[in-house]
Fold:
Amino acid sequence: MGFFKKLRQFFQTAWRWQRGRQQSGYDKMLLMQSMWPLPFDLYLLRFPTGSEIKPHRDPVESGRHFRLNIVLIPAEVGGEFNCATPIFASSRIKFFRSDLCEHSVSKVEVGTRYVLSIGWLLPDKPLSAGADPIVN
Structure:
């Protein structure tokens, strides 16, 4: 896809609420993205009451897909992030490999959950002996 076509597509979708990819009731707003020098995207995610994301991975054609989710406003009940092997997780910060680690969000029972989600791709690199495949 050419530069101007990508730019036009960005302006057609940026800063507008759209339905999330998982057909699960959450909404996303693209705030920023770049393909160079480091491919990344920045989204604001909104999880209204009743929304959830079923367990899944985010496959990529090549590279390593990292995602940092920052919970801006948690749901009153539900809306918990689940990932068996995060790189780092606290009540508000979730850092994980979305291409390797199955992840999900439990059903929001009460309230609306807002998350700032930053994702980026790093190129593949060979693993050295004893290296951690999650981080490397």
In short: Residues 53 and 105 are 5 Å apart (CA to CA).
